[in-house]
Amino acid sequence: MLSKQLGRHIVLSTALCFMAVGCSSQPDEEQQVAKTQIESLYEQARESMAAGNFNLAQEQLSNLNRRFPFGPYAHQVQLDLIYLHYKLDNTEEALAAIDRFISLNPNHKDIDYAMYMRGLVNQRAEHNGIHAVFGVDRSDRDSSMSEEAFKDFAELVRKYPDSEYAADAKKRLVAIKSRLAKKELAVAQYYMDRQAYLAAANRGRYILEHFSDTPEVENALAMMVESYDQLDLPELREDALKVLRANFPENQLVSN
């Protein structure tokens, strides 16, 4: 009797053991299947990106992000979606995705890339394709997005000076600064045309103070000289003329 009970106990224990092993291995198998599926879906999206089919790639990655928000490719999927939003000119979606990524992953190894992309998105947002094609000067248009891009690139260079994106960010800072200086110069010319000479002179001085390393400084100084002349302020006119003469001796106002 005792031997039968012992036998049943051994059989039951063995069965429970196999059940436990089966249960413990099932999640591992499911995880492996999910990982394989994620890898396949991600590879399909990457192929679409490589082929230039950005709309399809965006759809594929968005679906992947929804189905597996915490999968092994989650962060890379989010970064790829940022790039696709940029390529497709989805400015609001791109900026929202960038801000969300930076907020949730402040110490991620690719945080510098996210910051760089934010600068690119803001810089591109003000781009007007028609004006670019026909070579129309857009310096008198709204520059708020350029100002945001300038802040983005400046922050990237300051926080991550050794980033692989820092060199290009510095070049873009120079270009954006020139763009902003041209905008200020256009405003100053607007005041000059309407004989608002004090406002024009103040704009010129603003360019000297904030964009001293741009080519627009020469015209700003010349505008200040003319404005102070019209305002009958000889001392200020002479001061501006001295700076103009020292830095741009070939300027027409200097030679005259």
From TrEMBL:
Record key words, sorted: Cell outer membrane, Lipoprotein, Membrane, Palmitate, Signal, TPR repeat
TPR repeat locations: 75-108
InterPro entries xref list: BamD, BamD-like, TPR-like_helical_dom_sf, TPR_rpt
GO cellular component: Bam protein complex
Domain (Outer membrane lipoprotein BamD-like) ranges: 37-240
Localization, UniProt: Cell outer membrane
Database matches in PROSITE patterns: PROKAR_LIPOPROTEIN, TPR
Gene Ontology BP terms: Gram-negative-bacterium-type cell outer membrane assembly; protein insertion into membrane
Pfam families: YfiO (PF13525)
Membrane topology: Lipid-anchor
Function: Part of the outer membrane protein assembly complex, which is involved in assembly and insertion of beta-barrel proteins into the outer membrane.
Subunit structure of this chain's protein: Part of the Bam complex.
Family membership noted in the UniProt record: Belongs to the BamD family.
Protein name as catalogued: Outer membrane protein assembly factor BamD
